[in-house]
Structures are given as C-alpha cells and as structure tokens.
Amino acid sequence: MANIVINESSGAATGGVRDLLRWEGVALFVGMTLFYWISGAPWQIYALFFFAPDLSMLAYLAGPRIGAGVYNLVHATIAPLLLALGGIATAEPVAGSIAMVWFAHIGFDRALGYGLKYDAGFRFTHLGRIGKDATVPATKAENPTTGNKIKAA
Fold it and tell me: What is the model's pTM?
C-alpha cells in the first residue's frame, strides 16, 4: 500500500499503523465476501446492498458536521454487528446476509483508504486525507465549505 505523507498532528493514522488498518479492511472485505458465498445467500442481496451505505454521504448536504456523524454511524462496525446479532436472536437469515454485505462494504472502503470522517470535511479521515490534495501539508489545506485554513487536530 502506498505511504502517503500525512501531517502526524492531523489525528490520522500514519505509517505502519495506517497500512495495518487498510490491510485489516482487505481482510474484512475478503472474509465477509467468502462467508457470504459459503452461506449460500442470494448474490442479488449482495449486489443490492453493497453500495447502500454510501447513501449516507447525502448527509453532507446538511453540512460537514452532520455529514461526518451520519457517515461514521453507517461506516462503523457497530451497526452491522447489532444487525447480525438481531438476526441470530430472531433466527432471521436475511439480517445476517445484509450484515455480511455491510461488513464487506466497510472493509472495502477501509482498504481503499476511506476511513471514518472528521468534522473538517469529507476528505479528512482517520486513515489520512483523501482526494486530489491528499499530499498537501495540512497547514495549507482549506475547509471546502468555508474556505478557511484547516488547523491540525
């Protein structure tokens, strides 16, 4: 995985820790996809729900703070874990299938470097900045909403 230069005071993971978190995402994606295949669940559910969590990006229309909160709620592993547990408790296999797809999506995003978001904007994640200015020093970065310079966290 490429090591992108990140300001270490930005609050984002750097170096080997960042690489480990991204490889963990690869493992989550591959593992959940394999478990899904083994489960025999219909691939239509996988195709239908794989990118559904990305609809949470629409919350950024309400501003970066709300957008980050909703995105993080949907892209943390807590909700799909609760869904899987609920499926087990109620013996509902569809819940488990959707939870596996949701986990696979989270792993896929993390493998690509799309981490949990900070209030500064969509491009500021716990895995480092994403986008065309990802390698620009944080002291030169600007908030896309206000145009103000971003302070290092």
Answer: 0.79
